[in-house]
Every structure is written in C-alpha cells, then in structure tokens.
Design goal:
The protein has nine helices and eleven strands. With about 210 residues, it is an alpha/beta fold. It binds adenosine-5'-diphosphate (ADP). Adenosine-5'-diphosphate (ADP) binds next to helix 1 and strand 2. It comes from Streptomyces spirodelae.
C-alpha cells in the first residue's frame, strides 16, 4: 500500500495500516514529516509525487493500492492521482476537500473518493443532536448506533420486547458494565446500565436512541 501525502489525514491512515501489519510506503515532499514517520512505516520517503520519474523510481507503479492523501494543494492532488491512474493501479483512493475536487478526481478515474471533513462533520452532527454514544451511517439510509437502552426494552428477552416490529431496529450487540461487546440473541435480556448497538434505517436508529 502506498500513502502519498503524510499530513494529518495521511499520517493517521498510514500509521493505522502499519499497526495492522500492512506494508506501507509513505511519501511526502516535506523532509520533516518523513523523518517523523521513518521509524513507524515500512518505508517513508521524501519525494514530489507530481513527478512521474520520482514515483517510478519508488516502484509506485507496481502497487495495486494507493491513497492520495493530499488535500490542501489541489494541483498536487490532481497531478498525483492522474499519474497513479495512468500507471494502471487498480485501487486508487483519494481524499477530496470539496465537492468540485471530488468530482475532478472521479472524472480522472479515481475509484474511491473520500470526504473526511464532510463525513466527520455529518457524523458529529448526529452525535450532537441525539443521545447516541457513537454513530456510523452506511449508504442507502442504513446506520448503526451505540446508545443507552430505553426502559421499554429492559429486563425481558429481546424476543418479547419485539424491538424489530415496534422500533424498526435490530439490537446487534450488547455490553455489560466492565465487559466487552457480545452479540445479542433473542434470549438476551438488556439491563439498565448496559450499552447496546442497534442497526436499522437511519431515522429509526435515531428515534430509538432518543427514547428514554
Ligand atoms: P491534512 O489536512 O490531512 O493535514 P494536507 O493537504 O494539509 O492534509 O497535507 C498534505 C501533505 O501532503 C503535506 O504533508 C504535504 O507536505 C504533502 N504534499 C503536498 N504536495 C505534495 C507533493 N507534490 N508530493 C508529495 N507530498 C506532497
């Protein structure tokens, strides 16, 4: 995996991949950034990713996955993405800082355009508005929410509280105080100080987390 641009986003991504034992080639034109990460990634190299020769020397064209994590410098992001596409890299991921930026990346042929600031803003809005402890929304109006259970589902097996038909959500997992999460089953009995993870349509998960 190649990560180009080791700013806040690229750095955190590269370190997370390295933590999971993925071999990571990190590239940035700033020597201080490269120096900082040299012990933590498989390779951290100083190079200008808008230069085809520089990328070829690092054998970037031989990778099948690459991430362009340059955001602020639009020109550098586009030139870099364009080179990766022309190399025929199968999975190019790129961070976009605006809708227009994302559109250009898509037009170039970037397969996965991500909008970290925009997505995080939306996610935090859901957390701020509701009583959720954590929130992930997938495509097609489907979400998973971590929340405190409402009193209506306490102290009886999930099968009898009929959460699916009454609230349109499924309780996926449950966490007792001091323990880790386990899968919920129809026999699971939720207690007041447990935490639950529920899945369902976005609005249904939100409404469920707002019940007391
Ligand atoms: P973030 O908001 O995640 O910090 P930035 O866009 O500010 O993202 O940071 C991008 C990183 O990409 C910086 O560390 C910068 O040095 C690097 N970068 C920018 N242009 C190039 C380039 N042409 N070649 C290599 N690295 C670059």
């Amino acid at each position: 995996m190649v990560v180009i641009g080791l700013g806040r986003f690229g750095r955190s991504l590269a370190l997370e991949l390295a933590d999971e034992d993925t071999e990571v080639l990190g590239i940035d034109e700033n020597p201080e950034v490269v120096q900082l990460l040299s012990g933590s990634l498989t390779h951290a190299v100083r190079a200008d990713s808008t230069k085809e020769d520089a990328l070829r020397q690092l054998a970037v064209h031989e990778f099948d996955r690459a991430v362009v994590a340059i955001g602020t410098d639009l020109e550098a992001s586009i030139l870099t993405a364009s080179l990766l596409i022309s190399f025929g890299i199968e999975n190019v991921w790129a961070k976009a800082t605006s809708e227009a930026h994302g559109r250009i990346l898509t037009q170039l042929g970037v397969q996965h355009v991500v909008y970290p600031e925009h997505d995080m803003g939306q996610r935090v809005a859901h957390l701020v508005r509701g009583r959720m402890l954590d929130y992930i929304e997938f495509e097609d109006d489907f979400a998973m929410v971590k929340t405190d259970p409402p009193t209506a589902i306490l102290d009886v097996p999930l099968s009898s509280s009929a959460v699916r038909t009454r609230y349109g959500i499924t309780v996926v997992a449950i966490k007792r105080p001091g323990e880790g999460f386990t899968y919920a089953t129809p026999d699971t009995v939720v207690r007041a100080d447990d935490t639950v993870i529920v899945a369902g349509r976005t609005r249904a998960t939100e409404r469920f987390s707002e019940l007391r």
